[in-house]
Amino acid sequence: MKEVRRPASTSHIFGHELDDSVDQALLTEAKNAWSTAQRFYGSSLYLLVSGVAMAFLGMVVFVYTITDPAKTGGAWEYAFAALRPFELLIFIEAIAWFLLRQYRSLTEDFKKLHRIYLRRSNYMIARRALVEIKSFEKSRTIAKELLSEDLSGRLFEGQSTEAIDHAR
């Protein structure tokens, strides 16, 4: 059975084991979300590297299999001789395109799972704040802010990104 590692970025939050069943359940759910998100991240990186490598491989195969124009008699002979390498290039680039599309899809899935992880971490921290902070108002304020945090990734009115700015 594969051992689940505690990520370094959350060790300060989940630094010690908890006895309470609710805390333990929240901790388990946060760990599960983290490990699932990490699996998706690793798979997406594999697809990215594979897609880029396949694209370069297609170009290399095309360059090395294309016929030398000096060895052919005319334009029609050269066109027919170059047809096979060109078809091979299209085929390999189609594979690269497919891998990169899968990378994009898996990256979106990773983002969703990472948001789930952040949300579950916020639940855990809010619960700890309510239990451990002596001032009820402070702990309630912290918990309320953590639970109301928008993790959807949507832009609010007036916000923009570089891609949107360049499109304008």
What report would you give on this structure?
By secondary structure, this protein is mainly alpha-helical. The chain is 73% helix and 0% strand. The chain has one domain. Helix 1 (21-65) packs antiparallel against helix 2 (75-132). The model is unreliable at 4-18 (pLDDT under 50).
Number of H- or I-type helical stretches: 4
Structural class category: mainly alpha
**What portion of the residues fall into strands of 2 or more residues?**
under 5%
**Most strands sheet:** none
The tally of beta strands, per DSSP, is 0
Sequence stretches where pLDDT stays below 50 over 5 or more residues: 4-18
The succession of helices and strands, N to C, reads: HHHH
State the distance separating the first and last CA atoms.
52 Å
Q: Number of folding domains? A: 1
Q: What is the alpha-carbon Rg in Å?
A: 26 Å
The 3D shape can be described as elongated
Quaternary structure state of the chains depicted: single chain
Concise account of the structure shown:
The protein contains four helices and no strands.
Task: Summarize the topology.
Layout: H1 21-65, H2 75-132, H3 136-148, H4 162-167
Helix pairs in contact: 1-2, 2-3
Features:
single chain, 168 residues, mainly alpha, elongated
